[in-house]
Amino acid sequence: MEYFLQQLINGISLGAIYGLIAIGYTMVYGIIGMINFAHGEIYMIGAFVALITFLALGALGITWVPLALVVMLAASMLFTAVYGWTVERIAYRPLRNSPKLAPLISAIGISIFLQNYVQILQGARSKPLQPILPGNLTLMDGAVSVSYVRLATIIITVALMYGFTQLITRTSLGRAQRACEQDKKMAALLGVDVDRIISLTFVMGAALAAVAGMMVLLIYGVIDFYIGFLAGVKAFTAAVLGGIGSLPGAMLGGVVIGLIEAFWSGYMGSEWKDVATFTILVLVLIFRPTGLLGRPEIEKV
């Protein structure tokens, strides 16, 4: 039972990271009907910005951990928001009315460019970071331990999910986003600045990816220029599994994939965890093509 609970905690924290990245995929798809395949690299850049910010603060003599974490998070979200906005302006806006294959190829090109751009600037070697938040919360007389970083990851993810749900359902920006999702032309006729809403959607998704990138840096303590590819694929899988276009579905899909990986690695070995993840994805899509929380798309005639 103790081992089961340990893997459960590990899976939830890993799934929370996948879910944060998956929200960016599902928000973009919900509004423009396209997949932002450069989103994984935005997450990778967020992790690098957090690391560089921490090293810069250390060089300046700022060593108080709470202040350092806040500055790291703010810098990471700011820089990735700029990258997200730039990706939308360069890769998507000029091709918005083109065949859907064109922006897809453009996004893959941006993804490859960002990978090589970071590799040239930061080098191909992995970048380590010493533990910033050491210590664990022990349960069941020490048989189960939860690191403070993993606990913070789960709490922050729940808070961000609640905040985004409130933003989408209760604010004018959320109403404008839902209007663009339903009919961009009609939303524009009613005074909604569609270009601005789409750009803000990319910015919001990039900021969430930055949070995930910083959390991965703090949990695992090592990053490289290639971490965005696999995490992006897993997060996209989470968005599809939960129901592409559904924010709760993206988070649910992320948690499901995190749990599958944690339990499979813990009981069966880590070699086949990716095979197990994608096998379950295929089975879900065979019997429920819209995903766990997705709704069938109804076309107007």
UniProtKB/TrEMBL annotation:
InterPro entries: ABC_transp_permease (IPR001851), BCAA_transport_permease (IPR052157). Keywords: Amino-acid transport, Cell inner membrane, Cell membrane, Membrane, Transmembrane, Transmembrane helix, Transport. The keyword Lyase does not apply. It is found in: Cell membrane. It is a multi-pass membrane protein. The keyword Nucleus does not apply. Coiled coil: none annotated. Belongs to the binding-protein-dependent transport system permease family. LivHM subfamily. This is Branched-chain amino acid transport system permease protein. It comes from Azospirillum rugosum.
